[in-house]
């Protein structure tokens, strides 16, 4: 029964793990719609000559040129006078990926700065004073785009490749600056008018993926010229940790670069402050743009600059929060998505000082341009309970949210005013009228919040004012300033509009337009005012203009408590199999706020909206559901969802009828920026329609998010689990019990007491540390269960690997035994002198001292040079082969013994505690555990091996020293720790008596498991090599010096024991009769002899004295 329970527990964990992984893969392999427009170009790549003394001849440098006509490369290089920008491709990327950014930058320079976003129907007059918008009228210099050709190498997989890319980027920066000097000298020689242009002194670096990290690594390189780089823009680049943190050298390189950056800004961790003044990075700004939830290769958590670059010099944002983009995109899509590429191109051109034609020298000004052009900061204005940015504005602040003077309406005198008596106001056309809403009347009864949703552009299509009372003049410009009329138009929050409604035929009913912005006013903002006015611009009448799109604006005074709904963890889990339905009747609150106690970055939510009515009585009774939906879509605007938490960018989803809501946050990660336990979702739904809302947790989306967010933790936990397995096996050997199998050890570790001891202790330590360093942990309530769930998933994966490997071992052993028995039967029948001679020769060769006694030495001589001079994965593969051969040999011996008869399987030594078969089975069990541990370690070097194989024939370097050293320690562990010998690393700790507590091998495995568990929670599984190498080096050292130490300690006791035996020669017969009953502890002149570590045999006075490990018998 116990065996059944054991296998049942393991089977349940393995099956659940398999189902979860399959669900995650099914979700991850689905195509992801991105909504991006394609970028088109006419690329030409001009090679930049490389001097002969450059060692990295395999790499290259190119200058991009946009245009379909052929050009003279030499003449084009001679005329270089723009602002240099260097593009660095990422893992496996090409230098040709620069084409989208470079082509749009060229078109942006030709077309001029972006105009403010105006509604296409608005009539406005723009004066010649765009300085108020912070943008120049014309860009002063174009961008010269360079790109490095890194041969498509996989820099995310190997630290050595990353270092070489950094060195070549440093060279490229110097080469580009020198090229401008050479071009100027050629122009001077030719007498060109542009010869006197100032030379650039710095380069803008733009890096994609690992190229962004290479850009930062180049800035701390010792050979980089001073002030050669002052601006870095990274696209979906990891900064906190490597995306695949498996290779020790790669993780070490990341830690080194980030450490140098922290020193460069003088980070004061104790006070959480930064001091960049006077440091080497004081004039460098970094902007990091993440791809968002659709980027499966580099999670947004890794792109954060928190703790590396201070807020005064760095900006981190997601693509879904970038102005005019609002899209999450895949890892490669971020390079060609036209919405983002256009915005980035104009931003880079905007940081150029029009006076000197070079980027602004002020870091504050450069960063403010990036922030203004890219960061929407929409989520900061969405809280319904947080106090607003202003309460009562003074005279100096009254124009803070007013429309700029550069945009004026064609008719300041509006048509007849409309007075709204309902709490809902609707605008269906640009009628040039002002709507008056009485705040005190319509905002009573708890409806003290106001929201306006519209597709009219702020300032040019619609304007909103707050009035202290009804004045005689209807013209805002004629009202005295003392009356405190406040315009709040520019408080409107832009949101991405959905697809424009299509008109099937002229004059037909069309769908309502999707909202493009909304305004939210809270009670403290409305306090002190009597009226709120909504002014709509008049429709322009232009001959030949196509039919305009639908205009829409809906406003409402509402009570936020009517639309608030909280979802507890129990409700979310229950909704995973029974969806939660919410009915919204007509005249419901326009803003529906849903709060989720578990982050939607971990448990994505499936949201569905079905229109059940639209306030048209008698028109829907005889209509089908499809016709009813079409009719309601022409009356109500498409619903919009806005989801965010404190640690993620806002995600806006227009036209929501069935969607999976996911926020780009990573809760329960230790050591990173604080996450959020709570996700807020705002549903903007037209109050004229009624809806049935369905809310449920998407299991497949949750599984995919779990794998994406916590894969590094799971990998590290798998190593810690194997340390705990070896702890169980070595402990059994130390107490002289049977060594359990790997599966049985896993089952013992999953029992309640062992599970709490092995998994909860490191979690408690982390929680305790979080109280000392609060920035290390977001919330205990999410961290503890997620960590334990990762540990269980890691156990499930280990169970699968162990089961498959054990099945393969048994299959090969059975085949080996059967074939051997068949061969022996055939040999006895058809013997051949030639075959017998070959067998005798092979047997004699195998029995030689070189092969038989020095197998470990031979394996060491093969594997250590491979890990030091070729590649670690190759040397470790040889070590795995050695483990597999020994494990196969032991298992084959067990099966061969089981095939024999009962008489043949009896052990030759009647006093032996264990049979030969049992000893071989224990050896196999332990060998199997060591094999699995080393298999996981070897697999961690496989990505690096793939990158190494790609570079064959292109020039190779030796592996990094840290990789080689750790792998040598791992090899020593495999050679000297292949058997759980009780003598292996067993010594008393300093300060304890000789018979006190000793540090056994099982204790070392326990410490290694705890350490691996801790570093896995900090997303650094590669550090698991450290305890593995420590055990290997310690064990091999102790194995070498222990015999001499024990011999010196026991030599005197053995001599005294022999003398004691001689002195009792006269009572020989009595001693012989009582020898069998003598205990293992014998009093000698020097005291009792306890547990001597080695058997020693002495002959004296016709007595054979045998001192064993546990017993002492005189024969």
UniProtKB/TrEMBL annotation:
Residues 1066-1086 are annotated as: Disordered. It is an enzyme of class 3 (hydrolase). It comes from the Eukaryota. One of its GO terms (molecular function) is hydrolase activity, acting on ester bonds. InterPro entries: AB_hydrolase_fold (IPR029058), PGAP1-ab_dom-like (IPR012908). Keywords: Endoplasmic reticulum, Hydrolase, Membrane, Protein transport, Transmembrane, Transmembrane helix, Transport. It is found in: Endoplasmic reticulum membrane. Its main location: endoplasmic reticulum. Residues 1066-1075 have a biased composition (Polar residues). Its EC number is 3.1.-.-. Belongs to the GPI inositol-deacylase family. PANTHER family: GPI INOSITOL-DEACYLASE, HYDROLASES, ACTING ON ESTER BOND. This is GPI inositol-deacylase. It comes from Carex littledalei.
């Amino acid at each position: 029964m116990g065996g059944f329970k054991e296998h049942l527990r393991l089977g349940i964990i393995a099956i659940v793990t398999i189902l979860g992984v399959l669900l995650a893969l099914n979700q991850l392999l689905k195509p992801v719609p991105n909504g991006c427009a394609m970028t088109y170009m006419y690329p030409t790549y001009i090679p930049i000559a490389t001097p002969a003394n450059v060692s990295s001849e395999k790499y290259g440098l190119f200058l991009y040129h946009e245009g379909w006509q052929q050009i003279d490369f030499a003449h084009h290089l001679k005329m270089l006078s723009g602002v240099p920008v260097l593009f660095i491709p990422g893992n496996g990327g090409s230098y040709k990926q620069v084409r989208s950014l470079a082509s749009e930058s060229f078109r942006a320079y030709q077309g001029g700065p972006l105009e403010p976003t105006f509604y296409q129907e608005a009539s406005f007059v723009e004066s010649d004073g765009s300085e108020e918008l912070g943008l120049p009228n014309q860009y002063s210099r174009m961008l010269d785009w360079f790109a490095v050709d890194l041969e498509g190498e996989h820099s995310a997989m190997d630290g050595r490749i990353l270092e070489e890319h950094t060195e070549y980027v440093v060279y490229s920066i110097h080469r580009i600056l020198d090229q401008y000097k050479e071009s100027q000298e050629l122009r001077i020689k030719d007498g060109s008018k542009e010869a006197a242009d100032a030379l650039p002194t710095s380069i803008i670096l733009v890096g994609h993926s690992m190229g962004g990290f290479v850009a930062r690594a180049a800035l701390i390189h010792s050979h980089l010229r001073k002030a050669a780089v002052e601006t870095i823009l990274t696209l979906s680049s990891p900064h906190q940790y490597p995306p695949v943190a498996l290779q020790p050298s790669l993780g070490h390189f990341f830690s080194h670069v980030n450490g140098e950056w922290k020193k460069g800004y003088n980070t004061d961790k104790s006070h959480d402050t930064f001091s960049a003044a006077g440091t080497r990075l004081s004039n460098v700004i970094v902007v990091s743009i993440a791809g968002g939830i659709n980027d499966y290769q580099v999670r947004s958590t890794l792109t954060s600059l928190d703790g590396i670059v201070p807020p005064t010099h760095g900006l981190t944002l997601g693509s879904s929060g970038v102005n005019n983009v609002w899209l999450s995109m895949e890892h490669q899509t971020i390079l060609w998505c036209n919405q983002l590429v256009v915005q980035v191109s104009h931003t880079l051109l905007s940081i150029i000082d029009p006076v000197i034609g070079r980027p602004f020298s002020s870091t504050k000004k450069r960063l403010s341009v990036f922030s203004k052009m890219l960061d929407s900061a929409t989520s900061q204005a969405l809280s319904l309970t947080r106090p607003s940015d202003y309460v009562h504005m003074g005279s100096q602040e009254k124009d803070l949210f007013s429309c700029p003077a550069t945009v004026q309406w064609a008719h300041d005198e509006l048509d007849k005013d409309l007075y709204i008596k309902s709490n809902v106001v609707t605008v269906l056309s640009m009628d040039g009228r002002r709507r008056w809403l009485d705040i005190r009347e319509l905002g009573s009864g708890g409806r003290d919040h106001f929201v306006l949703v519209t597709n009219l552009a702020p300032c040019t299509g619609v304007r909103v004012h707050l009035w202290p009372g009804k004045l005689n003049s209807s013209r805002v410009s004629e009202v005295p300033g003392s009356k405190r009329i406040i315009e709040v138009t520019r408080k409107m929050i832009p949101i991405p509009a959905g697809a424009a409604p299509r008109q099937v035929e002229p004059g037909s009913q069309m769908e309502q337009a999707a909202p493009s912005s909304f305004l939210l006013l809270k009670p403290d903002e409305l306090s002190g005012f009597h009226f709120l006015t909504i002014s709509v611009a008049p429709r322009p009448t232009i001959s030949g203009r196509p039919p305009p799109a639908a205009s829409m604006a809906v406003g409402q005074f509402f009570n936020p408590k009517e639309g608030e709904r909280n979802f507890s963890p129990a409700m979310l889990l229950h909704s995973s199999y029974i969806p939660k339905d919410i009915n919204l009747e007509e005249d419901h609150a326009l803003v529906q706020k849903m709060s989720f106690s578990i982050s939607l970055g971990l448990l994505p939510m499936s949201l569905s909206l079905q229109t059940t009515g639209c306030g048209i009585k008698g028109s829907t009774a005889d209509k089908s559901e499809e016709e009813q939906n079409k009719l309601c879509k022409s009356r109500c605007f498409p619903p919009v969802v806005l989801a965010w938490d404190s640690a993620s960018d806002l995600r806006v989803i227009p036209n929501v009828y069935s969607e999976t809501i996911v926020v780009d946050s990573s809760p329960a990660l230790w050591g990173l920026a604080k996450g959020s336990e709570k996700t807020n979702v705002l549903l903007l739904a037209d109050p004229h329609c009624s809806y049935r809302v369905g809310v449920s947790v998407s299991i497949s989306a949750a599984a995919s998010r779990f794998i994406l967010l916590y894969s590094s933790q799971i990998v590290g936990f798998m190593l810690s689990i194997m340390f705990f397995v070896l702890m169980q096996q070595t402990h059994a050997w130390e107490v002289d019990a049977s060594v359990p199998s790997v599966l049985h050890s896993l089952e013992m570790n999953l029992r309640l007491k062992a599970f709490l001891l092995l998994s909860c202790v490191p979690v408690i330590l982390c929680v305790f540390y979080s109280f000392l360093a609060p920035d290390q942990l977001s919330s205990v309530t999410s961290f503890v269960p997620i960590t334990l769930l990762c540990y269980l998933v890691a156990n499930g994966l280990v169970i699968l690997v162990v089961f498959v490997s054990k099945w393969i071992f048994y299959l090969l052993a059975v085949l080996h035994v059967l074939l051997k028995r068949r061969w022996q039967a055939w040999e006895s029948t058809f013997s051949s002198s030639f075959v017998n001679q070959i067998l005798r020769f092979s047997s004699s060769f195998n029995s030689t001292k070189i092969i038989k006694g020095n197998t470990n030495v031979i394996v060491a001589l093969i594997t250590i040079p491979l890990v030091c001079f070729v590649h670690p994965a190759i040397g470790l593969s040889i070590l795995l082969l050695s483990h597999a051969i020994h494990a196969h040999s032991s298992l084959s011996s067990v099966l061969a013994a089981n095939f024999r008869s009962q008489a043949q399987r009896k052990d030759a030594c009647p006093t032996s505690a264990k049979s030969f078969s049992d000893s071989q089975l224990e050896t196999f069990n332990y060998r199997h555990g060591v094999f699995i541990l080393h298999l996981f370690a070897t697999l961690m070097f496989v990505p690096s091996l793939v990158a190494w194989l790609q570079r064959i024939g292109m020039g190779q370097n030796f592996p990094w020293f840290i990789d080689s050293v750790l792998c040598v320690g791992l090899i020593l562990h495999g050679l000297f720790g292949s058997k759980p010998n009780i003598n292996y690393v067993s010594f008393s700790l300093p300060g304890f008596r000789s018979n006190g507590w000793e540090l056994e091998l099982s204790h070392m495995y326990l410490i290694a498991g705890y350490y691996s568990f801790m570093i896995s929670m900090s997303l650094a599984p590669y550090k698991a090599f450290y305890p593995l190498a420590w055990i290997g080096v310690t064990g091999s050292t102790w194995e070498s010096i222990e015999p001499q130490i024990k011999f010196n300690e026991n030599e005197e006791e053995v001599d005294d024991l022999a003398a004691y035996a001689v002195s009792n020669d006269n009572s020989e017969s009595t001693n012989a009769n009582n020898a069998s009953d003598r205990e293992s502890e014998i009093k000698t002149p020097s005291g009792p002899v306890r547990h001597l570590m080695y058997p020693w045999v002495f002959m004296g006075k016709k007595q054979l004295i045998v001192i064993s490990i546990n017993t002492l018998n005189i024969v």
